[in-house]
Design a protein that fits this description.
Blueprint: H1 6-10, H2 31-36, H3 43-54, H4 62-69, H5 76-80, H6 87-100, H7 106-118, E1 137-139, H8 142-145, H9 150-162, E2 167-169, H10 178-182, H11 186-201, E3 207-210, H12 213-226, E4 233-236, H13 237-246, E5 254-261, H14 266-270, H15 275-282, E6 285-289, H16 308-311, H17 313-328, E7 334-337, H18 340-349, E8 355-358, H19 359-369
Parallel strand pairs: 1-2, 1-3, 3-4, 5-6, 5-7, 7-8
Helix pairs in contact: 9-19, 13-15, 17-18
């Protein structure tokens, strides 16, 4: 219940640390506030509005819903809150409240219906597959790597196979449930989580590899809360790759290029995984890694989180364009990332000024060129 967060909401000092990186000068921290320019679109403004709602000073309306849902769920506000307020949790709970009152933005309704009917956000039926019993690992594709970015998934599976691993896909896999949870439909998220864990229970002992940070974070942080059930052994794709490289099972080739790495919000601030992608890139001979001004925990969002492009495409594109501008300013030829949402968002915003690649594409290029 939203009311259970009343005390946390009241603890907000209105300091504005959720808006700006005061120690980084020119940069604003909240991407939505950065683009929109009004405090009502930042965490502080949203908490003020929610306090007014709880105190009966305002009624639920479409304007409130629009401001609350205009969020990337990047977690930067929570990470930087000097009062340690769980802002991202409060905003998810507020979306749950708004959805219950019938104020889910119309452009998100199709996404929810797709999840209910097809088990994925794209609204497409996945081809039937079977999980071999002799696999070493289970590759959990997620919605985007199984549809829009299936070619990237094929590259990733091929890389793991070249390292000598027997890779299997999860028969009957559905969405991890993060999009539903991010939009406030916790019941649907729980239903999807239960379906996935039921499938994985018969594969106990298998290592589950997640190429999508959002899926991994959902499994690691939310499944235990939603379901009191068996939890599998899990790892992110970049963590596994780092181990394969360090142990000599995967040998990379050479590329003469420069790369800057975009830290996905869920991979970095969400999961605390910062070094594996960088070590992978630096393991490719001839590659120069150049950091953006905002990197690691201070990374700027791509604008693709929390299904933002579905209902706020212009806002999402402007956020992504800002990140592309920052990447281009490094002088690097390529901006690499390790998240399907980031990959799609950054690719949609580039105007040919910099190449956008998944980290697995860099690995494939280096192996092919030797």
């Amino acid at each position: 219940m939203l009311d259970s967060y009343r005390n946390q909401i009241l603890r907000c000092l209105r300091c504005g640390f959720c808006f700006d990186y005061s120690w980084l000068g020119q940069y604003r921290m909240c991407p939505v506030y950065d683009v929109m320019g009004f405090e009502s679109y930042g965490a502080k403004g949203k908490l003020i509005a929610l306090q007014a709602l709880l105190e009966g000073k305002i009624e639920v309306n479409e304007s409130l819903a629009r401001h609350i849902y205009a969020c990337c769920d990047c977690g930067a506000c929570t990470y930087n809150c000097m009062m340690s307020i769980n802002i991202d949790t409060i905003l998810k709970e507020s979306k749950k409240y708004l959805l219950g009152k019938g104020f889910l933005p119309s452009k998100y309704k199709k996404l929810i219906s797709n999840l209910k009917a097809y088990g994925n956000i794209s609204g497409t039926s996945k081809p039937s597959i079977q999980t071999p019993s002799n696999t070493d690992i289970i590759y959990f594709r997620g919605c985007l790597y199984s549809t829009h970015l299936s070619s990237i998934a094929e590259i990733q599976v091929e890389i793991l196979s070249k390292a000598g691993l027997k890779v299997g896909l999860l028969e009957g896999e559905v969405c991890c449930g993060y999009p539903a949870l991010a939009l406030g439909d916790e019941n649907l998220a729980r239903e999807l989580a239960k379906r996935n864990l039921t499938l994985l229970e018969r594969l106990k002992g298998k290592l589950i590899v997640f190429p999508c940070p959002g899926c991994y974070k959902m499994f690691r942080d939310e499944y235990p809360r939603l379901l009191n059930s068996y939890m599998p052994n899990m790892i992110h794709f970049t963590e596994l790759l780092e181990n394969l490289i360090d142990t000599g099972r995967l040998t990379l080739g050479k590329l003469e290029t420069s790369v800057t790495f975009h830290d996905p919000c869920h991979l970095g601030r969400g999961l605390g995984i910062y070094e594996p992608p960088r070590r992978i890139i630096e393991s490719i001979k001839g590659v120069k890694l150049i950091e953006m001004d905002r990197s690691r925990a201070w990374s700027y969002c791509c604008g693709g989180g929390s299904a933002l492009p579905r209902a706020f495409p212009k806002l999402s594109r402007k956020i992504a364009r800002e990140r592309i501008r920052e990447a281009t300013n490094t002088g690097a030829e390529i901006v690499a990332t390790a998240c399907p949402s980031c990959l799609l968002s950054l690719r949609s915003a580039t105007k040919g000024d910099i190449k956008v690649k998944d980290i697995s594409e860099l690995i494939q290029d280096s192996i092919e060129k030797g």
